[in-house]
Design brief:
The protein is of the alpha+beta class and 477 residues long. It folds into three domains: 101 residues, PH-domain like (Roll), CATH 2.30.29.30; 125 residues, Rossmann fold (3-Layer(aba) Sandwich); 221 residues, Tumour Suppressor Smad4. It contains eleven helices and 25 strands. Strands 12, 13, 14, 15, 16, 17, 18, 21, 22, 23, 24 and 25 form a twelve-stranded antiparallel β-sheet that branches. A seven-stranded antiparallel β-sheet has the order 4-3-2-1-7-6-5, sandwiched between helices. The protein has a four-stranded parallel β-sheet with strand order 9-8-10-11, with helices on both faces. The chain binds adenosine-5'-triphosphate (ATP). Adenosine-5'-triphosphate binds next to helix 4. It is a peripheral membrane protein. Its EC number is 2.7.1.91.
């Protein structure tokens, strides 16, 4: 039978209710006639966390979007709907329909949850217990929770995870812990299997660009409850991943790589960390006043015809490129003929996988989760005042309209960072998903014993949809 119908008490009122195998619960009052509250409906797939069964009742835990101003994504609110049945048989019949529906809905049943107790303002544990745990409980999810105890602990845990025991790994943290899990999975001997494990993120760090990008793309209000609900709903989005190789160092990125101004501000301002988020603004002012330009080169493989700017590679550059990087993975772009190069002075180069780099920074408004490319934002020579306006406009993404910004979608790139123009030291940092990948001589002591010294060129290859991430339904590309 596709639909069952029953006369029940719904929140104490007599209604005629139906539930269909396609997941729609509808009701109509048997006493109110055409009164505005006489009818109702709820979509079991889109708007329900789960259900629980009482002695003669079923409680449906709904999580429905509240209508707000049209330009805002609306918040969801929890509301329980209690259905009381006349007989144990009809209750059982309804339970069977609900059970069958949720068994086939692709929702996760067993999750491995990692919480970074020091993420953001040390509030991640509180976020988990207050907001996330109650929702997972209502959804009937079995949770194994681990607090990360040290830097890169999440990576170790991902490396040793028993894959068959979980339907997903969820990080209650910033983007850093999520990236560690990704790298742990990809460093396993069984990485091809391991990387199919769906990942989830509940924003509880300082940098929450991935969670913001997912919720925004799904037209969901940005908060931790909605992020948890996206995981409960079980929709999954393939996510591009960049493999990054510099000499012997090999790792993976899901968010961003930057070199120059932006990375320098981020890392150099660590000295004034006690000032909180103000540290970034203050250091940005310092760096604008004492603006650095770096010499270097960027070779890249355009993703589309309109991303072709710059010169073709010389035959020597092309042959160097073909010997470089990583040949382990499926996608190998090194021998493609369409590579281009930009050389000279740069203020910054920023490669971004998803639109948001942080909650309030839309670094790459055209970025897509699964288009097989990273978006490059390149600033070369630029007057100081224009640079300030570009930085301010990153809050709404309009910086890409500036004539000083080159915005390119690329499938692969090779960055050769050089020194500060007009200075004997190299200086600047290369930031990979919030961690130092490399730094120029002088960025750390005299640089002679710095293990992260710039070294050889950095090769980045985008692997289309290599990872899988839980995402709001409307975000799926
Ligand atoms: N118990 C711990 N002690 C010290 N460092 C930890 C611990 N757990 C996780 N970390 C490290 O904290 C870093 C930041 O993690 P997370 O992703 O939660 O936040 P973030 O937004 O990237 O940064 P922030 O620390 O500024 O909030 C990661 O590099 C991770 O390895």
């Amino acid at each position: 039978m596709d639909t069952i119908k029953e006369s029940v008490l719904l929140d104490g009122k007599k209604v005629s209710a139906t539930v269909s195998v396609s997941g729609l619960l509808q009701w109509e009052s048997e006493t109110l006639g055409w009164h505005e509250n006489a009818k109702g409906a709820v979509d079991l797939r889109e708007d329900v966390i789960g259900y629980s069964v009482g002695s003669s009742s079923i409680v449906i835990h709904t999580f429905v979007q509240k209508a707000v101003k049209c330009w805002e994504n609306s918040k969801r609110v929890e509301r329980d709907i209690t259905l009381v049945f006349n007989s144990p048989d009809s209750q059982q019949e309804w339970c069977n329909v609900l059970q069958r529906f949720y068994r086939n809905a692709g929702r996760p049943k067993r999750l491995f949850v990692l919480v970074n107790p020091f993420g953001g303002k040390n509030k991640a544990l509180n976020v988990y217990h207050k907001t996330v745990e109650p929702l997972f409980k209502k959804a009937g999810i079995d949770v194994t929770i681990r607090e990360t105890q040290f830097h890169r602990h999440a990576k170790e845990l991902a490396k040793s995870l028993v894959l068959s025991e979980y339907d997903g790994v969820v990080c209650v943290s910033g983007d850093g812990v999520l990236t560690e899990v990704l790298n742990g999975l990809l460093e396993r001997p069984d990485w091809e299997q391991a990387i199919k494990m769906p990942l989830g993120i509940i924003p509880a760090g300082t940098g929450n660009g991935m969670a913001k990008s997912l919720l925004e793309a799904g037209s969901e209000y940005y908060n931790q409850a909605n992020a948890a609900f996206a995981i409960i709903r079980g929709c999954k989005q393939p996510l591009d991943i960049a493999s990054v190789v510099q000499g012997h160092v090999k790792c993976h990125s899901m968010l961003m790589l930057s070199w120059g101004f932006v990375a320098d501000v981020d890392f150099e301002s660590e000295k004034i960390r006690s000032l909180g988020s103000l540290r970034i603004d203050l250091w940005a002012v310092i760096r604008v006043l004492w603006l650095r330009e770096y010499s270097g080169s960027l070779a890249y493989l355009p993703a589309t015809e309109s991303d072709i700017v710059g010169e073709r590679l010389s035959s020597q550059e092309q042959s160097l490129l073909e010997k470089s990087g990583d040949s382990d993975r499926d996608t190998d772009y090194r021998k493609e003929s369409n590579w281009r190069t930009l050389e000279g002075k740069f203020i910054y180069i920023w490669a971004q996988n998803v639109p948001y780099a942080a909650e309030d920074v839309i670094a790459a408004p055209r970025a897509k989760f699964n288009d097989g490319s990273f978006d490059l934002i390149v600033i070369r020579q630029c007057p100081r005042l224009k640079l300030v306006s570009i930085l301010l406009n990153m809050k709404n993404g309009s910086h890409i309209k500036s004539k000083y910004v080159q915005y390119l979608k690329v499938k692969a790139f090779r960055l050769t960072p050089g020194g500060i123009v007009g200075d004997s030291i190299e200086g600047g940092y290369v930031d990979l998903d919030g961690e130092v990948l490399a730094r120029g001589q002088g960025a750390y002591g005299d640089g002679s014993r710095d293990p992260m010294h710039y070294g050889p060129a950095i090769d980045v290859n985008v692997e289309k949809g290599l990872a899988t991430i839980f995402a709001p339904a409307r975000c799926i590309e």
